[in-house]
Write a structure and sequence with these properties.
Blueprint lengths: L1 H14 L2 E2 L5 E2 L5 H21 L7 H21 L9 E5 L7 E4 L3 E5 H7 L3 H16 L2 H22 L3 H5 L1 H11 L4 H17 L6 H11 L8 H5 L6 H12 L15 E3 L5
Parallel strand pairs: 3-5, 3-6
Antiparallel strand pairs: 1-2, 4-5
């Protein structure tokens, strides 16, 4: 068992690789396709639980706003990354005024929390920057990358368990991987990549890139430093992020100088009334 397991784990670690849309080499043990399949299962389970707990929003005006802005971004994503045209694009609107967060799983399954709007008083352009950033995580296969980091940790746990003849440690590897895949933040490299790609998507969709700077100014002021937004816990921000975004904005604006709006791609919006 020991002789077979450890070389197999090492082989996986040595041969798994991919390339992001920006040309960056990515460490992959989980294929993007597998990440989409696993994300679908997790997403449907999460939304079902939220519905049972009456935690999906019933705000029709907010749902319409989310659908319109996110729909424009999805139109651009599908144009620029044709493989995403077959994704099951959807967004759940979660009724949680205390949580400032949003995310997008592999395969285009998204969620936004009402706290984003209530606490940050977002403009349309600021919300577009958030969702462009989140969509970019999916387009750049960051979910698969994060799951792979978790799997690498698990392989280490399994190998240690096999070497020490501790079956319980080895058998617990899968559980560790699943937990870490949900909890690990994106790397700073992935964050900068999503900033860049997300701003481009938002600009092509017709939204002002300067909103990325004002968004992070608002994000930094929420909670007065006592209870930072959940968004910041999974989106590590280097100190020069706002300066970097401002520099990106000048270049990104040239992608759509007139600011013309993209068409709205119909997507599924999951709310209390939609269940």
């Amino acid at each position: 068992m020991k002789r077979l397991l450890i070389p197999a784990a090492a082989a996986c670690l040595l041969t798994a690789c991919a390339t992001s849309p920006t040309g960056r080499s990515q460490f992959m043990l989980i294929s993007p396709e597998s990440a989409i399949v696993e994300s679908r299962t997790a997403y449907l389970s999460t939304v079902s639980d939220l519905d049972k707990q009456n935690k999906l929003s019933s705000d029709k005006a907010l749902a319409k706003r989310v659908a319109e802005i996110t729909g424009r971004l999805v139109t651009v994503a599908m144009q620029e990354y044709p493989r995403s045209a077959d994704w099951e694009w959807s967004v759940a609107v979660i009724d949680d005024p205390k949580t400032v967060n949003a995310w997008c799983m592999a395969g285009g399954r998204m969620a936004v929390y009402t706290g984003l709007f209530e606490q940050l008083k977002l403009t349309d352009a600021e919300f577009a920057q958030i969702m462009g950033h989140e969509i970019s995580h999916a387009l750049a296969n960051h979910t698969a990358e994060r799951m792979s980091r978790a799997m690498a940790t698990t392989l280490g746990v399994v190998a240690v368990g096999a070497m020490s003849d501790r079956p319980a440690v080895a058998m617990g590897g899968a559980a560790v991987a699943a937990k870490l895949a949900l909890e690990l933040p994106n790397s700073r490299t992935a964050e900068l990549e999503a900033d860049h790609l997300g701003m481009e998507i938002a600009v092509r969709a017709g939204y002002d890139p300067d909103a990325a700077v004002t968004l992070w100014e608002k994000m930094g002021s929420v909670g007065g430093g006592e209870r930072p937004p959940e968004f910041l816990s999974t989106h590590p921000a280097p100190g020069n992020r706002q300066a970097a975004l401002a520099a990106m904005a000048n270049e990104a604006r040239q992608l759509n100088p007139s600011g013309s709006k993209a068409r709205v791609q119909p997507i599924q919006v999951l709310t209390a009334d939609a269940q």
